[in-house]
Amino acid sequence: MSEFEPKIVGFLCNWCSYAGADKAGSAQKPYPASISLVRVMCSGRVEPEFVLEAFNNGADGVLLLACHPGDCHYKEGNIRALGRHEVVVRILEQLGIEGERFVLEYVSASEGDRFVRLVEDMTDQLRKLGPLQIRR
Amino acid sequence: MENNAQHEGNHGGQGEKLKTSVYFCRCGSNIASRLNENAALLKIECQRDVSKVKAVNLLCSEEGKEFLKNDIMEDRPDRVVIAACSPREHELTFRGVLRDADMNPYLMQMANIREQAVWVTEDIDEATEKAVRLVRAAVSRVQKHEPLEEHEIEVCPDVLIIGAGPAGMKAALSIAQSGRKAVLVEKTPVVGGMPVLYEEIFPNLECGPCMLEPMMDEILHGEYSSNIELLTLSEVDELLGFYGNFVARIRKTPRYVDMDKCIGCAECFEPCPVQVRNTFNFGLDVKKAISFPFLGALPNAPYIDSRKCLRFIGEECTMCRESCPIEGAIAYEQEEEMIERKVGAVLVAVGADLYDPTNIPNLGYGKALGVYTSMEFERLLSSNGPTEGKIKNMGGSPPSSVCIVHCAGSLDENHKEYCSGICCQTAFKFNHMIESQLPGTRIIHLYKELVIPGKDDFSLHHEAKDNPNAEFVRYEDIRDINIYTPGEQENVQVDYRDASGREGSFMADMVVLCMALTPPAGSEELALKLGIPLDSSGFFEELHGRLDSVQSKVKGVYLAGTCRSPMDIQKALDQSMASAGYILSGLVVGRKLEVKPTVAEVDADRCGGCRICVSVCPFKAVEIDGETGKSSVNAVLCQGCGTCVAACPSGAIKGNHFTREEILAEIIGGLR
Ligand SMILES: Cc1cc2nc3c(=O)[nH]c(=O)nc-3n(C[C@H](O)[C@H](O)[C@H](O)COP(=O)(O)OP(=O)(O)OC[C@H]3O[C@@H](n4cnc5c(N)ncnc54)[C@H](O)[C@@H]3O)c2cc1C
Ligand code: FES
Q1: What is the pLDDT of residues B198-227, one digit of tens each?
Q2: How confident is the model at residue B395 (pLDDT cuts 50, 70, 90)?
């Protein structure tokens, strides 16, 4: 049996994380192909609904990547994102979805390697958890 | 140009469908060689909503852009997807092409198949699949795109400058020289800031007033002075509006001397019966209730200290008016005025203060005689100061030993964590001036760190190091120093433990405390009025510490000088010129201000007036309308981060170009 390839939706802020993913790209560092990246201007733009809809539409995990604390291009969008992350994790758990399926991390524009590692780690973690069970 | 897999849209009668063209860039061989192109094109072509796919060798080349433009003009698609590199690289390029092709530039979406698919996926089939998936997400998103219009607004090119220290003055002059109007608001009766109080200025030991006088003269009487409106004894009370269109309300307190009439003859000082402590000499001496702050102060007109003048505490005294040779120059009838000025930009240059030495009681300030702050010592050195430049204790004799405490309150987690940057140089300037006036004086430097960067600043340090009468003792913690007057003695005793733990003690006739520079008094209040934030140390916070250190977080409000961070005069002036540059290039006479459409917009019908958006906006761009109680976003101030959009509990805010529908379509398109 071939290994389970978890589907991940990644929300990346334009200024640091998306640039970090581009960095991994130009350095040609391979990472699991089953992630789809969605660009937002700031991690603070990500609404709980986006995360829930991602799960609802077949994602096994959601990765929200922001600028490091203090580095947000818009000052504190990543702090908002952090607050919302906590809330969404609680909602997910209420719905019977493991909180570990929604991860918030920080990636700077130069951290291509870190971006790759985070995608790999998340993929490993989701493999352990297995495919998301609740599907409508 | 080679076109593969061309396919004209035919959507089986679904008339509402948008004609969507996908342009697939091979990026030389960068993309083409790492996936199965034919398979990819075929799969893209079959995607719902795709009308046609065209592969192009290098879409960002001149030839590629020309092709894209012509193809769009010929074909008139409703939506365009460009499958190529990162939008961070070429989104603006392709938006430009759409504009040239007469198509709204926001009806395009890029699929980043180079950085996110072919360059990071080793298996060629997987790379093909992923590229197709990214295109699907983009196609699905672009269906939801809306045409967005850039628009323009009129702006006022005039500038409000707060603080007439070196930074504020320099900026006012540059603005005035360009033919614009500068409103220069200064809270004290004089211009020049801190440095007019110094006898000499490091690193070259120029005379302070002489260095600044030409600048001050130009402001008051120069070729462009008519473009500068100087308001002394004034403070900004309120700032309304936004970049390009601010309205400032300025509170001007009376000088009780008509600056247009007064010739500065000083005849009125002598007859005045009231003495007050001179705050410009930090209370070291007294002056009359009507007087100059110090000799040579500009503008050259005295002011009346209304807290002490007899007239203003209920007695009928007209001594100064009687002695004045000019009719109407003494103007008791002046009243506080509220002045309103329209400006396009604001520069904050309110300088700094010294950290209060009584916060470190072991330094003996205010208790032991002969302990001065660095600013007070500057006044003792100054020929227009309380001792006319003679280094001596007030009422006493010249010292034979002076202790200079560096880093007092700086680099200290119990006080100010930062290095104040100017104290070492100040201390070495003092070392030089003491040695030249009183050769042979013992000078003991107590320091924590020595910070002497830059190409000019080493010479004074060398001079101090080479001075045989100067001693250097390094301490670790300011609490290891104890300064006090023992018993009945005149001079002070300094006990210390040095950095290696050794204890010592000496007597000194004078102690100078190089206190940390702090944000100026009242900065919190001012920040609130201007709607700009302070940083964790209380200084005015920059938009970006490296890239945009003279812009505040609010568009159109700039920062220069020590109100931003401790710095010397050179840096303060550099920053003031940088701010002037931003202002002159951003607000151009006769040019309107471009307003980006990628901002947040409130649907008033859905807004519940909960104010969450106001509280989360980092740029003060969201306001609640006093009458309707609904929020609205100022498109000039909004930076398009989308934080309010995500925070709104009623879903009433739309983030243009990153709408809920667009993002959801992209998420779902990528998962399908
Ligand atoms: C003891 C000492 C010695 C120094 N010696 C030197 C030296 O030799 N060489 C050197 O390069 N640097 C020296 N410095 C540093 C120098 O003083 C600063 O770099 C310089 O003053 C910065 O200029 P500024 O215009 O930013 O601020 P300031 O000179 O502080 O001017 C700010 C102005 O704003 C006004 N203001 C404040 N609040 C308001 C308000 N709310 N509304 C309106 N106006 C307001 C103030 O009254 C003042 O006029 C020294 C500093 C100290 C403490
Ligand atoms: S811009 Fe990166 S988190 Fe806000």
Answers
A1: 999 999 999 988 899 999 999 999 999 999
A2: low
- Whether residue A3 is contained in a domain is answered as no
Instruction: Please write the tens of the pLDDT for every residue from B418-472.
Output: 999 999 999 999 999 999 999 999 999 999 999 998 899 899 999 999 999 999 9
| Overall fold of domain B596-656 | Alpha-Beta Plaits (3.30.70)
The structure tokens listed for B665 are: 């379509």
Gap from B644 CA to chain A (nearest CA, Å): 8
What is the tens place of the pLDDT at every residue in A81-104? 999 999 999 999 999 999 999 999
Mutate to test the interface with A, among B535, B659, B663 (most CBs of A within 10 A): B663
Predicted TM-score (pTM) of the model is 0.76
> How far is Cα B46 from Cα B49, in angstroms, rounded to an integer?
9
pLDDT digits (tens, 9 = 90+) for B618-643: 888 899 998 999 999 999 889 999 99
**Ligand 1 atom nearest B567 alpha carbon:** 19
Range of the domain at A73: 10-127
The residues, ordered by sequence, that sit 6+ positions from B504 with a Cβ below 8 Å of its Cβ are B473, B495, B496, B497, B498
Angle between helices B166-177 and B569-586 (to 10 degrees): 30
Q: Where in chain B are all domains bearing CATH 3.30.70.20?
A: 596-656
Ligand showing the shortest atom-to-Cα distance for residue B642 = 2
Residue A119 lies in a domain: yes
Q: Give the pairing of strands B20-25 and B52-56.
A: parallel
